[in-house]
Amino acid sequence: RIQQKAPPLQVTKSIWDKKPDFEPPQGCEAPPPGAFMLLSFDMAEAKADASSATRSMPLDEKAVVFGSSQHHDGQVHDGHKSVKEQHTCLYFIKGKWHLKAVNGTTYLESMTLHPWLRDAEGAVPKRFTSSTSRKIEAIQPMDPKKRLSKEMCVFRLGESERRFWISGPLPLKDGEVEESGAEAARGGAPAGERRRDRERERGEKAGRREKDRRSRTRSRSRSHRRRK
Q1: Helix (H) or strand (E) holding 129
Q2: b (16+ CB within 10 A) / e for 98-133
Q3: CA distances from 10 to 7, 13, 153 (A)
Q4: Which residue from 29, 36, 103, 112 lies 20 to 30 Å from 170 (Cα-Cα)?
């Protein structure tokens, strides 16, 4: 008698343990009701029509997790292929918002890089800038949390084209100043820098006038000596 072989067993084995769901740190607290708003936009849509590209939701919870998973209740979804199931977390602690990369790289960006930012009503928000040249900061899961400020309030997950930003009374970091309305719309320099530029131009003009005066004085002196 020839015995038949049993069909092969389909066994799926996991070679590593799945990470537990992210839990916000102890000490998180709910922000003041109605004080902050989370807004998002896709870059292509914002460049085409900034006023209608923004989506918004109030930030009333003590923490918000962002990622590609659709199985976690309350999570903000970004389905880009570079975004992890639970990618990063935004949480409120000691009166400030902090950003923590959970399982993937997160980029914290200056609002000066996005002239098409609009608030929930489609209006241009107040813009803040600083003299630092570092306008993008990459945050890895092993890095500590990063505090958001009035200038550094925009972030993205992985290589996604979607941007999230926080509208509300964020704190000013050292060196951050508000742009004037006209210059903010044109992407110009802040008032302090413009004032320094004007003072420098006035000083250069005064120096040129003094140099011309001395040159004319020397020329008259040489002419007077030749006549003698």
Answers
A1: strand 128-129
A2: bbbbbebbbbbbbbbebebbbeeeeeebebbbbeee
A3: 9, 10, 49
A4: 103
Q: Has this prediction a pTM greater than 0.90?
A: no
Terminal alpha carbon distance of the chain = 140
Is-contact 176 151, C-beta < 8 A? yes
Residue 217: φ, ψ to 5°: -65, -45
Torsion of CA 200, 205, 206, 210, to 10 degrees: 140
**DSSP type of residue 133:** S
Confidence of residue 195 (pLDDT cuts 50, 70, 90): low
Pick the closest to residue 156 from 112, 110, 115, 121 (CA basis). Answer: 110
Other CB atoms within a 10 A radius of the CB of residue 43 amount to 15
**Which residues 6+ apart lie within 8 Å of 22 measured at CB?**
65, 86, 89, 102, 103
